[in-house]
Amino acid sequence: MKVLTVFGTRPEAIKMAPLIKKMKEEPGIEAVLCVTAQHRQMLDQVLELFDLVPDYDLNIMKQNQTISQITSNVIMGLEEVFQKEKPDIVLVHGDTTTTFATALAAFYQQVKVGHVEAGLRTYDKYSPYPEEMNRVLTGHIADLHFAPTERNRQNLLREAISDSDIFITGNTVIDALLEVAGKPYDFEDETLRNIDFENRRVITVTCHRRENLGENMEQIFGAIRDLANEFEDTEIIYPMHMNPKVRDTANRILGNTGRIHLIEPLQYQPFVNLMAKSYLIITDSGGMQEEAPSLGKPVLVVRRETERPEAVEAGTVKLAGVSKETIYGMAKELLSEQSAYEKMAHAVNPYGDGHACERIIKILVEYGEQQTNHN
User: Is 374 annotated as catalytic?
Assistant: First the structure.
């Protein structure tokens, strides 16, 4: 069975790398990898970390590219790959523009699609934008749906996806996280090398989503600045996103505050190690809502909604919204009340046990055998 995997961004690469590595070891699967390089530099870092060499590289990234350009360039670029490889199934991940465009390209070629991390929903098509609709549209093209949780399965069933095509697997990001966290590592970044992780409480911040640009981001950064000013035993680390709008806002609001460290984006291995050494995570990222709880770190999500409500229900994550007062108040509670902190830190992560890749491969092999018998 020939399986073509396509991804283009760093988060997809992180979550799909352990799956590709395991597929290459599986005798029943011929694994082919194509990257679109929707993100170039950050993608390459992950490929290097996991020792993956793509069979195809569309290299579509251009300065200030629009969503329309990404979509059309992926579809056009994949046409030749599909015609040459003739895969039995194409694997895509999550909710990026590469994911939706790949699923659509596969549909045009009448190639089966497997959707890893299927069934997450906010039910607001503009938040996260464009990710929510990328995920929904991919779900209605896909033939196999690898859902991390039972809630994701229920979301798909409500949209009339056949139950026999949905498989609960856990999330592959936990597989990747545990693989990387198990390796010894020393920080290369000078700022991180000089942080006293033993005696300081480190808060790691990430903030980059389109819907948070502008007023929301000003509120989020205002809360973070106030936390730094009040809690003198904290150090706040913010690996800044490359988006110039994000950087301008961060430098203006956080740039001159003591104990707030604005650093360059980190590769995955140092970032996992930073999470592991942190006391608290404040983020608008999706993946960190899954990863940090595996390391026993409470997460405050600075968004109005999340497509990962299981984490909120499990108590590993709290939805803090985008108002300065609420974010500050929730973080202050975790920094001031040990019982509130311990409750979150010891909650059980709902996203799996690190064996999602094995489950997906088993399903793919069985699916391939069924297709062969059917034909």
Answer: no
